[in-house]
Design brief:
This protein is mainly alpha-helical. The chain contains five helices and no strands. Helix content is about 75%, strand content about 0%. It is elongated and about 55 Å long.
Length: about 90
């Protein structure tokens, strides 16, 4: 079975890969904003006992602190979500 040589790294290729990850992250964030199904899942998760424990550990005692914590969690997920597709993106 022949092996193909790895593509030569370049600045343009790195920028394309980075742009692909940013676009996937943005699509995930937009799905949270505009998809009722995804937003419902986030609301359901944010009301679980585990998430309430996270509120207590983070010191989010009021609604503003809780909302801030949810936004940080969504941003973290949006940043990590494209990682499993990294190999596919890098071709």
């Amino acid at each position: 079975m022949p092996t193909h040589p790895a593509p030569t790294p370049s600045v343009a290729r790195t920028l394309y890969k980075t742009l692909a990850v940013v676009v996937l992250s943005a699509l995930f964030m937009l799905s949270l904003r505009f998809s009722a199904t995804v937003a419902g899942l986030v609301d359901r998760l944010a009301g679980t006992g585990l998430w309430l424990a996270v509120y207590r550990l983070a010191g989010a005692n009021d609604a503003t602190g809780q909302e801030r914590l949810i936004v940080m969690a969504v941003a973290w997920c949006a940043a990590c979500w494209p990682l499993p597709w990294w190999k596919w993106l890098t071709g």
